[in-house]
Each structure stands twice: as C-alpha cells, then as structure tokens.
Design brief:
Elements (H helix, E strand, L loop, with lengths): L1 E8 L2 E9 L4 E7 L2 H17 L14 H11 L6 H21 L10 H13 L4 H22 L26 H9 L4 H13 L3 H6 L5 E2 L4 E4 L13 E4 L2 H8 L14 H6 L13 H7 L2 H8 L14 H13 L4 H8 L17 H5 L16 H10 L5 H16 L1
Antiparallel strand pairs: 1-2, 2-3, 4-5, 5-6
Helix pairs in contact: 2-3, 3-5, 4-5, 6-7, 7-13, 13-14
Length: 413
C-alpha cells in the first residue's frame, strides 16, 4: 500500500510518496509535481506486489545545492582556518544565490561549466578583479569535485570538469621604506591613526592583533611584547610568542599610557591598565578594517607619493606596514628566520628545535630607526624629501643596492 502526501514548506509545495512495510511507514521519495509523485506511487505498488525491495528514489529527489555545500564545508573543509573557511562559505553562498536567481530551485545539477562561466562573468561585471573572481571559481571547483566524488551519481551531480580561467600577473607588492612610513605617520592628525601607524611601523602586526593588543602585553621593564595565543593566525602564533621591541617604540608608547595621562581609577592602576586596549578606541566603527577604509588610509598612501605605477593597486593600506617592515629589515642584513619570527610567519622549520633567543632578535629590534619627525606633510615636497633621505643614508652595501635598484626602475619607466 502506498499513498501521496502534500507538504507545504519553505521551498513551496512538494509531494511525498510513502508506503507501509511490515513494521513501519517508509518514505519512497519527494517530488516537485503531483504527476511525478503519482507515477512513483504506481511503481511502489508494483514492486510491493512482486515482492521486490523498495529503495529511496535518489535519482528523482530534488536535492538542495545548499545542503551539499553544507556537507562539503563540514567534512572536506575541517582543516581550514577560520578566515579561509569564511571565504569558502561566502563564495558558496554567493553562487547559490546566483543559481536561485536564475531558476526557482538550486539543485546539484547547477554545478556545470556553463553556470560557472556565467557566475565568473557576473562577478567581473560586479566590479570584482580578475584574480579574485578566479579564486571564487577555484573554491567552486573544490566543492564540485568533492560533491561529485561523494554522490557518485551522474543523474544527481554531473562529473567534474574544471573551467580554465586565465589570471592576471599582479604588480609588485607595495612595501614602503621607513622614510615613507614616517611621511605617512606625520600626515596622521588624529591620535587613533597616529598610534595605529606607529605600532604597525615598529612591529608589522596584523589588523586583528593591532586591534586586540592590551597594555598588559607590553613589558616596559624588559622591552618585550607578547602575542597571546588567541591572537595568532599561523600555527606558530597560535602557541603564543614573545619578542623584543624597539626602544623607540617603548618611548612612544610611554606617552600614551593611561596612568601617565592622569587617568587613575579607584582600583589598582596596574591591574586596570593591563586590560585596557593598547590603541584606544577613539574612532567609531564596526570593525578595525572598516575604520581603516573610512578614514582614507589608502588615499593617504597615494598622497605621500610612496605608491608607484609598478605596484599592485589592490594593496591593503595597513598591511603595507607589514610588507615594508620585512623588506627593510632584510635589506639591512637581518636574518630571515628572525624577521619571520617577529612578524609571525612559518618558515617550514620545526620550532621545537630552534632557540629563538640565539638568533639575534634584540639586534633585529634595534635595527628599527627612530621616527623622523621632520618628514613632510604635503605631497608637493615629498620628492625633494626622498632625495634628501637617500643622500643621508648610511653608506652600506645593502643600502647602495636598494638605491641602485630604484634608479634602474625609474629609468625603465
């Protein structure tokens, strides 16, 4: 005995075919139209009369693309970090919405080369750059490949056929020098911008780490900074790390301390100050990155004249400090392992067998020059100031190579 039941849900009206076994009621499939459900009912009754085992009709089931994507994220993307998983999730949601905008329902058969090509063109029309749109396609390729291998039924999911996307050759990374960072700092009038740029100039920390640093993470007596495990991104940083910082940064931060500014609460000053944010939240904004965008940091970099035509135009304004710190320290002869430890990068080395106290971390911290308060604020005199800074540099081999490479680049352009 079999029957058809009408179901009203978020996807609209559907029909479920059920039958009674010897012990319980079982479902034979769900269908979008009543005609398909009646046809399935006749098949079930015929199989029951013949004594043949009845299986759930997966071939005619209108499976949800979002459900398969959810399984893919929960099973195949467990090893990914929080940020990478969030990027995959946004890509899959955007593609699912794109498919549902073209059809009433989004079934797994929508994973095909035609839809991927249309989605790629739609993203380019939306203003997304070529490399970012190609990254979205690579995320969909991974999901399509895993879903096809899991289902293994061409009637539900088509066999995996990747879509070839040509990527653009990006420009050179924007890595400003310490002189150009000083010009940026001198152009910051608001204390929040000034303090954020100064800490980024001496540490090269990431956005989230700068936003969540506390005064308790700074040891003024020993000159150390601590990155708590919850602030780490790489596997090394998620264990927590402590490294020496420049004496010039300590001198700058002593002027910002709440206790030194006369802010003295009733409770213990040291205990209260340890939980206060290092960079005071004087600017309103949803997130730290949104504050950077709304306050025109990228426009300020262009105004200083540091961004050249051969640089990648899609650089991140705060991340430029991180790139500049690493580039300038390596050009001054700092060991690669020490620089990687300071900024929190992995170098495919086993950290259990490395004593970072013996790789001249304090010497690298002392390579940071003091902030030049004579840096210009107006872009008109930036070129003259750059020539003056290059003439006043120390006559060392790495600096001569850096000046020569700049001169060659200018001649080529």
């Amino acid at each position: 005995m079999a029957w058809v039941q009408r179901i009203e849900g978020r996807r609209g009206t559907r029909w479920r075919v059920s039958y009674r076994d010897k012990r319980r009621h079982l479902s034979a499939g769900r269908y979008d139209t009543e005609a398909e459900a009646l046809h399935r009912k006749q098949e079930v009754e015929t199989l029951q009369a013949a004594g043949v085992a009845i299986r759930y009709d997966t071939a005619r089931k209108a499976a949800s693309l979002g459900e398969l994507f959810r399984v893919h994220l929960n099973v195949d993307c467990v090893h990914l970090g929080k940020k990478a998983l969030s990027q995959r999730l946004k890509t899959l949601i955007r593609f699912n919405d794109f498919v549902r905008g073209r059809a009433a329902t989004a079934n797994p058969l929508a994973l095909n080369r035609e839809n991927l090509a249309d989605f790629y063109r739609a993203e380019l029309a939306r203003g997304v750059c070529v490399n970012t749109a190609a990254k979205y396609i690579s995320h969909l390729h991974t999901a399509w490949k895993n879903v096809a291998a899991e289902v293994d039924d061409s009637r539900i999911v088509r066999s995996f056929r990747p879509l070839k996307i040509a990527r653009e050759v990006p420009g050179l990374p924007f890595a400003p020098t310490f002189e150009e960072m000083d010009a940026f700092i001198m152009s910051c009038d608001h204390p929040w911008d000034n303090h954020t740029a100064i800490v980024a100039r001496f540490t090269g920390l990431r956005n989230r780490q700068l936003a969540l640093l506390r005064w308790g993470d700074i040891d003024f007596d020993r000159g150390l900074m601590t990155i708590r495990p919850e602030l780490g991104k790489s596997s090394r940083e998620r264990r927590g790390r402590r490294f020496p910082i420049s004496a010039h940064l300590l001198e700058e931060m002593r002027q910002w301390r709440p206790a030194d500014r006369g802010v003295r609460p009733l409770q213990n000053v040291a205990a209260w100050e340890a939980h206060q944010p290092l960079i005071h939240r004087q600017v309103r904004g949803a997130t730290f990155s949104e504050r950077i965008k709304t306050r025109g940091w990228k426009e300020r970099w262009y105004a200083t004249g540091a961004v050249k035509s051969w640089h990648n135009s899609s650089f991140k304004p705060l991340h430029a400090f991180r790139a500049g710190v690493q580039t300038d320290l390596l050009s001054r002869g700092a060991p690669m392992v020490a620089v990687s430890y300071l900024v929190g990068h992995n170098q495919n080395l086993n950290d259990h067998y490395i004593d970072y106290s013996r790789i001249a971390l304090e010497r690298v911290a002392n390579m940071f020059p003091a902030i030049n308060r004579m840096a210009p604020k107006s872009p008109e005199i930036h070129q003259e100031w750059s020539l003056h800074c290059e003439q006043s540099r120390k006559n060392s081999a790495p600096e001569r190579n850096r000046t020569l490479s700049r001169a060659v680049c200018l001649k080529l352009l």
